[in-house]
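Cross-posting from the modeling subforum.

Setting up a comparison between two proteins and wanted a second pair of eyes on the formatting. Protein 1 (sequence, then structure tokens):
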Amino acid sequence: MLGKRFVLFEILGFKVQIDASWLFLALLVTWSLAKGLFPSWYEGLSPITYWWMAVAGMIGLVFSLIFHELSHSLVARRFGLPIGGITLFIFGGVAEMEEEPASPRVEFLMAVAGPIASGVFALAFYVMAIVGMARGLPAAVLGILDYLALINTLLAAFNLLPAFPLDGGRMLRAALWHFKGDLRAATRIASRSGETFGAILMAFGAVNVVTGNFVGGMWWFLIGLFLNGAARASYVQLLSKRAFEGEPVRRFMTPNPVTVDPTATLDSFVVNYLYQSHHGLYPVVDSGRLIGFIGTRQIKAVPREDWSIARVGEVLVRRTPENTIPADTDSVKAMATMRRNATSRLMVVDGERLVGIITLKDMLELFALKMELEGPT
């Protein structure tokens, strides 16, 4: 779902990141506010005024989304659930929950916190707009307050739809989980609800495109497409967690991977390793101790004429908890580490010693085979 991310800041112990796709949304929203919404709400203002109103509205939207996701994160932390961070992306924001809630009650409280937070924000902006109007604030300021009140109201209302993985869908799953006592069955029903709502939004968007509202229709279609796919992926994610839960990493790793000596030149590495075995990552081992890894990205950073003198040990990526994992770690945690650090490979270690490599591709292929042979469990 998410691609390259940049850290904005940290708040209350949670890292707030922005996905590259958000930049497109920020530009589109700012342009739409400056050229469409604000001129239609408040006529006669200067173009410069509309643009700074749009920028202020965009900044307010960012903090509204962060406030919404922060509420989820705080409730999750209250119940001991780890949150990988808060990320803004093209379709809004997400608090990256690394584990499933322990009970329906925890699920419901986490889910409802978001719409409540957005509702509180909306009410606060409505009150400020009313007070500001009474005190004679400029129309530009009132326009920004009105917009933020509206957008937070819509954010709360949209998230209350019973469409997983929206907040309303999670509340639906919590209720089904409570009455059925079966998280898998509850997730299946809630996910199908999400797929259905996604299909409805896609159809609504298509109708808008046909009737002439191309931009609005495309956005509804894309949101529906995202919701449909996210709902389906959420159920598959739960099944994969069930398939791997309790299984140590060593069961799924590739043992005895090809390793490189840190004293090897880049020329030697390219000819004798890259061109021979075509792997995406090569662990670098010195006297039996793993010190890092090297791949094509590190090679490309060095000018071709320097390959004959540059050494692997000079350009490698050092071993860190983000690219290694102990062999006895639960495989579910390995998948969470890959997702959190946007990587598809981890080096598997036993102390200082390399014992294997685990890849997301291998895990997913095994999961697909398990589903084909055994069906959902």
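Protein 2 (same layout):
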Amino acid sequence: MTAKFLAFAPERGTSLRLSWTNVVFFGTFHALALLVAPWLFSWSALGLLLFLHWLFGSIGICLGYHRLLSHRSFQVPKWLEYAIALIGALALQGGPIFWVGGHRQHHAHTEDTNLDPYSAKRGFWWSHMLWIFYPRAEFFDYEVYQKYAPDLARQPFYRWLDKYFVLLQIPLGLLLYALGGWSFVIYGIFLRAVLLWHSTWFVNSATHKWGYRSFNATDDSRNLWWVSIVTYGEGWHNNHHTYPHVAKSGFSWWEIDVTWWSIKALKSLGLAKKVIMPPSSSASQG
């Protein structure tokens, strides 16, 4: 999934219309990442990029928005939950209510061409990114998507974060500029955002098209190793769609799940509790 921005959203029942706001926004980020980043390369900027890709991607999105908030596969103290959600908002993939609401719609109506926000049945590029450029009110209107995340919508902090998450890039940019100048800004915000967007989008697109199936899920979700590498474990998508409320995605020893390592660390510190594990019968079922 990705961000809710100031997108044009047509009324229900009308034809889809291209959101030039989203086209310009995402196009600008891609242009800066592709055209400017090579001229500002440094090893320190590359190191920053990799660190923030992991922090915002694995901790913020995979652990926070996805496994903690969307599926409640474990619990942490409220202060830590808010801190992790703030990290997720810095990933620039939408506010928490939008992200969670859309993801819950995806699981409730997986691959339905009308009810799944990024249905793979509409084609690879639709599920990868075109659903953002042709936004539908059912998925981008706060009054609609908040109904799928009432537990978050009741909390003022999440309502604030859902509304103002884009503005968090301003203090982040100022901090990065102070630490390393424009190279840190380009690599830490623009290039990082583009790479993390596509990493996350591959879960919506690639893992519903390629890979192996360990379980006979009712949808076409698949386990794809290279998506798990760039998403810190989210590519074991067939496992996840079979057991969506489980805190780990990699079930077999070779299914590396980096995000699960962080959850285990929190558990060992006594910060993660009620961690939902796969059933003991979750061996491969062909």
